[in-house]
Amino acid sequence: MSTIRAALENLNSVIGTLEQSVDMMEQARKGEQRDMFAAPSNENGKNTIDKEAVAKRLDNAIEKVEKLLGDENVA
Mind spelling out the 3-state secondary structure of the chain? Predict the structure, then answer.
């Protein structure tokens, strides 16, 4: 179980880093005026992430952790 605990602690830390990155990105974009009709930037094709696949993986991981923690509390 200690391996799972370490993984959960690492995940919690990474989520914190992700939240900070999103906050910084939102702050940086607050003052920007965005052109709704501009051509997409060249960066759109780089490092594209399948949002649905990431969301599904996160949902599955959360479900497994909840089940594991629920089973742990019952035992």
Answer: CHHHHHHHHHHHHHHHHHHHHHHHHHHHHHCCCCCCCCCCCHHHHCCCCCHHHHHHHHHHHHHHHHHHHHHHHHC
At residue 74, the pLDDT reads 61
- What is the residue type of 4? I
Every domain of the chain and the residues it spans = 1-30
* Encoded tokens for 70: 């629920």
Give mean pLDDT in consecutive 10-residue pieces for the chain, a chain of 75 residues.
85 92 88 70 68 92 88 67
Residue type for position 26: E
